[in-house]
Structures are given as structure tokens and as C-alpha cells.
Design goal:
The chain is an alpha+beta fold. It has ten helices and ten strands. It holds the Pfam family Peptidase_C39.
Length: 279
Amino acid sequence: MFLITLGSALIYHFATESFELADQPAGTVYYTEVSDSRVNSFSKNHREPVQIKPAVVDQFRGIVRQAYDYSCGSAALTTLLNGYAGMNLTEKQTMDGLMRYGEYNRIVERRSFSLLDMKRFVTALGYSSGGYRGELKDLIALDKPAIVPIAYAGFKHFVVYKGYQDGRVYVADPALGNISFNADRFAEIWDNNTLFVVELADYQQAENLLTLTENDMRHVEDATVNQYAFVDAQAYLYRQQDQLASQASTMRRVIDSDTKSDNHGKPIDTYMRMYYKRK
């Protein structure tokens, strides 16, 4: 009898797990939803492979990350030229070009690059470009990415404007990655309402890799950030432990005796927990 039971178990195991023997792409994990998450049961609703990747990969998707605290200008310009003009520059190559064609002495003095330095380097590459001033509505109406200076968190910074949708301005930040601002907030930090654009001739057109994608829309709402920014860590830890205790406990069905409950007098599911006291 034991051998029959063991053989049946082995047949069931190999029948349900055999599909995993096939080669899967790197980063594949198996997501399994069981009928009852509190019980390590063999009964499964469905099981399927899911592709995952670190969040930081998507965070800096299409962005050349700045290598130095003063190099946001060169990183932003490299991001724009690579993503919009189809070039394949490194930040060092862009920095070398800015130093060569820009105002060298002033760059060394202020330890940063200006929009004029960018224009001179872009011209040397064979592209037309220009710096402009405008309002938020002008930026929203723009059909191409642009470098915009912002005054944020106590310092001045260059980011690449990607687009606008549903009240939010999306930018490629060489320091923070793909982020977005509420439109009113962006209007406050936009430094001097200045923008720098690169104009492409018809023969220079390339695929715009800085256009908004579905992944760009996955952001945390400002209200949610504000709500949880100052949450008491101990309170959060207690709630987490409370949820784990419920998950590990046994359920039973009882009549709700709470007179203030909407389910008073009705059957409800509760958790039977076992608590241990340290000596």
C-alpha cells in the first residue's frame, strides 16, 4: 500500500512540474497562487513563469547616469543626443566635447556646463539647436524632448523633459532616473523658464527613445508619498507582525457579538491565534 501511495505521489509531482524543465529566459521566476495561502497545499489555482528585473534597471531606462556631482549638464545632453538624435556617446565623450568647444575657463571656474556650451558642442556635431524661454503650456506643446534647468532641493540641476500627461510632467533625471512632477510643482522649480532643444533635419531623424511609455506612468502619487513619508516605523512593524500572525493562524466561523459592527448577529470569519509568553 505504501509503495502504491508513493508511486502515485511521484507520478503527480512529475506530471505537474515537468514543464519547468524547459529552458527559461534569465530572470524568470515561477509565480504560484495556491487555494489557501495559509496552508502549504499542493492544490494550486494556477502557476506560470513571470519575467522580473530590478527596479533600478527601469528607473534609469534610456538615461545616461551622471558620473560626478557637477556633470548633470553633460549627462543630460548625452541622454538627449543618444535618445533623440540616435547617437551613441558616453558621458566622457560629451564632457570632452563641451570642454573643447565651450568656454573652457568659465567651465573650470564654475565647475558646470551652460546651455551656451551645449549649443557650441551640438553645432560642432552638425545639429541645429537653440535656447528659449517659455511658459509651461509651450513646453507641453513641444513635440520633442528638451533640456530644462530646475532649481530643486537647494541646488540647480539639468534634466531632460520627456512629456506631459494627466497633469504631470515627466523628465529623465541624470541623478534620480525617470521621475515626474505635478505640473504646478514643476512650474515652481523650472529655473527661468528656460529650455534647450536640438533640431534634426529630415535625414537626421531617428527613433525617439525618450517618448513616454507605459512604464513612465507607473509613479507613486504625491498624496501617497506625503501620507507614508512620516509613518511611525514601530506602528508599521506592529501591523506587519499582526498580518503575519493572522496568516499563520487557523480560521473559525463565529457569530459577531460586537454591537457596533455592521455584521452584528451575523456569522463572520475570525482568526484563532496562539500566543507564547516568555519566561
